[in-house]
Inverse folding.
């Protein structure tokens, strides 16, 4: 009985150390570039694609973002998950997710009030 308790205790301690290390940081390679990301939507019309600009968002190192698509910018917060996706809270992109895709510094953005299915957002600079 004591041996089982000892094994259980050691297992729990190891699991908590490992999970703390995994959740403590997002690998630097998955962190997005800080700066401005321009967003567009695409629609297929008459045999070709039409690209419609939808403003931009700017990521700051302090975990805040600004969406510039209106007269007055909208401010909120973001986090980065372990896959490198951006998760937005507050502001215009509230409850949105920008999913990292296979191209550098590019995301597919979806959020509840989106007028199109999704936007493509690409890094455009500081």
């Amino acid at each position: 009985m004591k041996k089982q308790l000892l094994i259980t205790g050691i297992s729990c301690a190891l699991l908590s150390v490992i999970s703390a290390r995994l959740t403590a940081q997002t690998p630097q390679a998955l962190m997005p570039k800080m700066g401005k990301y321009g967003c567009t939507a695409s629609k297929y019309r008459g045999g070709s694609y039409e690209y419609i600009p939808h403003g931009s968002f700017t990521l700051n190192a302090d975990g805040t973002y600004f969406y510039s698509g209106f007269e007055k910018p909208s401010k909120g917060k973001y986090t980065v998950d372990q896959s490198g996706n951006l998760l937005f809270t507050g502001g215009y992109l509230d409850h949105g997710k920008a999913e990292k895709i296979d191209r550098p510094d590019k995301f597919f953005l979806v959020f509840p009030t989106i007028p199109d299915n999704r936007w493509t957002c690409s890094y455009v600079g500081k």
Notes: The two ends are 61 Å apart (CA to CA).
